User: Fold this.
Amino acid sequence: MPIKESSFRIGCGRYLQEENLLARCGEEILRYGKRPLIVGDDTALNITRDVMIPSIASACEAYEVVVHNGTCNDERAVEIAEMTRTGAGYDVIVGVGGGVIMDFAKLCGHFASLPVVNIPTSAATCAAYTPLSVRYTPEGKTVGTMHYEYEIDAVLVDTRIMLTQPTRLLLAGVFDALAKFVEIKQRFHPDTEDEFPMGLDYAYVLAVRSFTTLCRDIEGCIDDMRKGKITPRVDNVIFTLIAATGVVSGIARGSNQTALGHKFYENTRYLFPVTARPYLHGEIVGIGLLLQNHFNGEVEQNDFLLGIMRKYGMPCHIAAIGITPDAATMETYYERLCACSAMEESGESERGRLYDALKYLWEVK
Assistant:
């Protein structure tokens, strides 16, 4: 795939992950601006406001909170960017919430040409860290991804806040992170690394480490979090989901680290925006990984994925996300996936593998 951004945006300006970090978030935000415009959804603001706002109020000259419960869309982001150009003089965007808000805060910062500090309240995606935003219409249809030329200025992860997230959100993050390794393997093999863009071999190695860590620790991490314990295992999993997975994306420079798994997600959001709306990014990507593993010739890897999905009540087949598994729908997916960037230069053999993988996915119960 073509490189989406020529620069290596490997990290973020400042990444902190510790217990009760929210209580001193104001001094961290002050590194980037004195008048933050805080953007969050109702749920995230409800669980952070009592600790976060006093810290910001004591450190900064002024602040304003904007509630956004919609999609990551350009129209609303432009409106919020315009707010920063008023007499109030807002000089930094602070995003507080899950993956949608993390992407949305970056989009607002892009249109406002301001620094962005992200405070994630879940680890459902690596969106707090990655230098891109996945964009939708206000109604939820996929628009496309905007890649930024610069890294996020700061990510502040309060592990005590992370314990408040439902298991469903954590698992969505796990499957989004697992996807990095499974999808890179569609195009990359370590024995032929000289044929691939510089840096992709390092993305591959880190993706392998992340995959191994998550497969080993996720069930124990869930048990620890349900007991309200912040253990090294919890810290490692959260770091893997947000920071390590974000680094993979930055090193790969916006391409080659995603393939059929995420293209299945994008097409699901496009074809069934209303039906798919209740389901998380990682939940739909997880179903796409079953397709990806079959395409990669590693369908046996799905035994582990399906085991986790079924144990914790994740959707594990397309009917579980409200899509009727009929022949017409499969043909639509096939045609759209054949035309996507993950397959556009493929020959008949690979297209045949894709068709077989879709048939397999349509039969999963």
